[in-house]
Amino acid sequence: MLEDAGLGASLQHYGNLIEAEVARNWKLNPEWKLIAQMPFGGITAEPGPKEFQPIEERVFVFA
């Protein structure tokens, strides 16, 4: 729907690295968990290609 409206977005997932600071700055309920944010707005350029490490370096299987 955002694209249909001429907007772009970026879904960003978080660990707990900034959770306490965000809760403090915006006086949020400390029981809330920061999982992700999705800033959106006008599109100024097309996204560039993504680069990924080889799957063998990112996923580990322990049997």
Helix fraction by DSSP (H/I, runs of at least 4) = 10-25%
Strand order of the largest sheet: 1-4
Largest sheet: 2 strands, antiparallel
- What is the approximate shape? flat
Oligomer, anyone? single chain
* Residue fraction in strands: 15-25%
Give a verbal description of the structure.
With 63 residues, the chain is α+β, with helices and mostly antiparallel strands. Helix content is 17%, strand content 16%. It is built from two helices and four strands; from the N terminus they run E-E-H-E-E-H. The chain has helices at 19-25, 55-58, and strands spanning 7-9, 12-13, 36-37, 40-42. The strands form two sheets. The chain has a two-stranded antiparallel sheet with strand order 1-4. Strands 2-3 form a two-stranded antiparallel sheet. The radius of gyration is 17 Å and the shape is flat. The model has no long low-confidence stretch (mean pLDDT 89).
List strands and helices in order, with pairings.
Elements: E1 7-9, E2 12-13, H1 19-25, E3 36-37, E4 40-42, H2 55-58
Antiparallel strand pairs: 1-4, 2-3
TL;DR?
The chain is of the alpha+beta class.
Which descriptors apply to this entry?
single chain, 63 residues, alpha+beta, two-stranded antiparallel sheet, two-stranded antiparallel ribbon, 4 strands, 16% strand
